[in-house]
Design brief:
With about 290 residues, the protein is an alpha/beta fold. It has one domain: Alpha-Beta Complex (Spore Coat Polysaccharide Biosynthesis Protein SpsA, Chain A). Helices cover about 35% and strands about 25% of the residues. The protein contains 11 helices and 13 strands. Strand 9 and strand 10 form a beta hairpin. It is globular, with a radius of gyration of 20 Å.
């Protein structure tokens, strides 16, 4: 029987250079999708999935993320005085004390290194990794779906989507052994292969359930593609001792690490809002006609 997943690691140390100048002082994880920052969507997804302890792997200039999940007594007093109960509930609806922890990734050595920085927090337990840049619009959330699948197969499990053949060099790609619908067993995983060398078009996105054995490889600090310590290399290195499955979740993934993906996510989530959807649809129609 697979051990339960109660811990999650969120790497948030990146500089967000694609979104300059907005990210000169504001962490990219704090960029809003409608009115809620990316990082909060990720943490809400983790909590919905039953995670009770979250480690944020941060870097320099990221202290505003900690402030966001802290109490703002002055703001709460103003809202309470003005009888803004709905707004008060929104700013207080964060994880209770003790659910969030923070550590620093002093050097930008890659995703594998960021996860390695959380090794003391993870200890000897299976854990989840969520990349806030990958926003998944799904009910139930992507991680909750993954945990249900993990309870069937155990081992390492990665969220997967099909990509165009000419885009394999942007992702980790699974070497598929067998396909069982939403669950795919993999012989391995290759980071950013060229289209001609890619074993499939099934890519890995920013949701993982991993076994602690992965740290035995990450401890070596071995660099791979782009001269970084790659998480996908560590996952591949644990085979065949730890099984690897790709999971094709139900939902829509937005790559909010790109400007186009970020804008599309804002539109998609705004259209779902009762107070915004109709007005936004009408505005989009007018805009398209004017073009």
């Amino acid at each position: 029987m697979a051990k339960p997943i109660t811990k999650a690691v969120l790497p948030v140390a990146g500089l967000g250079t694609r979104f300059l100048p907005a990210t000169k002082v504001l962490p990219k994880e704090m960029l809003p999708i409608v009115d809620m920052p990316l990082i909060q969507y990720a943490i809400d997804e983790a909590l919905e999935a039953g995670i009770d302890s979250v480690m944020l792997v941060t870097g320099r200039g990221k202290s505003i993320i900690e402030d966001h999940f802290d109490y703002s007594h002055e703001l709460e007093q103003i809202l309470r005085r003005n009888n803004k109960e709905e707004e008060l509930e929104v700013v207080r609806g964060f994880p209770a004390a003790g659910h969030l922890a923070y550590t620093r990734q002093q050097q930008p050595l890659g995703l594998g290194h960021a996860v390695w920085c959380a090794r003391q927090f993870v200890a000897n337990e299976p854990f989840a990794v969520l990349l806030p840049d990958d926003l998944v619009k799904a009910t139930p959330g992507c991680l909750k779906q993954m945990i249900s699948a993990y309870e069937q197969v155990g081992g390492n499990l990665v969220a997967s989507v099909e990509v165009d053949p000419d885009q394999t060099n942007r992702y980790g790609i699974l070497d598929v052994a067998s396909d069982n619908g939403s669950l795919v067993e993999a012989n391995g995983i290759i980071e950013k292969p060229s289209p001609e060398d890619s074993p499939s078009t099934l890519s890995v996105i920013g949701r993982y359930i991993l076994q602690p054995e992965i740290f035995s490889y990450l401890d070596r600090q071995k660099k791979g593609a782009q001269n970084e310590i790659q998480l996908t290399d560590a996952i591949a290195a644990t085979l065949p001792d730890v099984s690897l499955h790709g999971f094709l979740f139900e939902g829509v993934r937005f790559d909010c690490g790109t400007k186009a993906g970020f804008v599309l996510a804002n539109i998609a989530f705004a259209l779902d809002r009762k107070e915004l959807g109709l007005e936004l649809k009408q505005a989009i129609r007018k805009l398209m006609v004017s073009k």
